[in-house]
Amino acid sequence: MARRKKIYEGKAKDLFEGPEPGTIVQYFKDNASAGNGEKKAVIEGKGVLNNRLSEFFMLGLQQIGIPTHFIKRLNMREQLVRQVEIIPLEVIVRNYAAGTMAKRLGMEEGTALPRPIVEFSYKNDDLGDPLVPEEYIIAFGWASQQDMDDIVSLALRVNDFLAGTMYGVGIKLVDFKIEIGRLWDNDFQRLVVADEISPDSCRLWDIETGQKLDKDVFRRDLGSLSDAYTEVAKRLGVLPSNVTHTPHKPTLIN
Questions:
Q1: What pTM value is reported for the model?
Q2: Exposure letters 178-201 (e unless 16+ CB within 10 A, then b)
Q3: Is 237 part of any domain?
Q4: What are phi and psi of 4, to 5 degrees?
Q5: Domain that holds residue 230
């Protein structure tokens, strides 16, 4: 499709004006970053894999009645989405202790939690996306109490879907993060799952071996990120049968 005006440039995605009012074209890049942008590289094919995987998950959510901003995939790197007002929060759902939670609480990574835990971080790269309690969110007007109730309900439903889908292909859903957007119809507001759902935003471990199949492979130098994401796509049946992946060494960005 013809290139349109860029309206946002992110670390892993760029956003362009859509073909119709109220739509946006979301372009998935090959860039990878970790440590709040301190570590960067270009991983060939990463954007293609994340585009296909996010499409798979968004369509799956829609099929079980969970609203998303996704409209359709346009090509190997772009998808058409509805323009939404993003609530400035990362909504994190944890099933097992890992990452920053394990460090904060001194827990062994992989410890099963008694129930899924929903956390919120304020989306601000300069501040390192700090965790915030619900009281802050409501007091600062980022979301209302009703919004928060709806967001938690949405997040737990997404967790049920993702955990079941992953378990069916031998993958443990350790945790994930999503973003929530507001869709407006005159004065009526609807909350929808926005941004993306991919191995960039999930922790995924092989159930049998514990092998990491997510961005921790890049964060911790555990091997090929492309191979890890390709494995997830193959297990889910997302990759076309005529597509094969040839791994390339990541290109570091200074």
A1: 0.91
A2: bbbbebeeeeeeebbbbbbbbbbb
A3: yes
A4: -110, 180
A5: 6-83+224-252
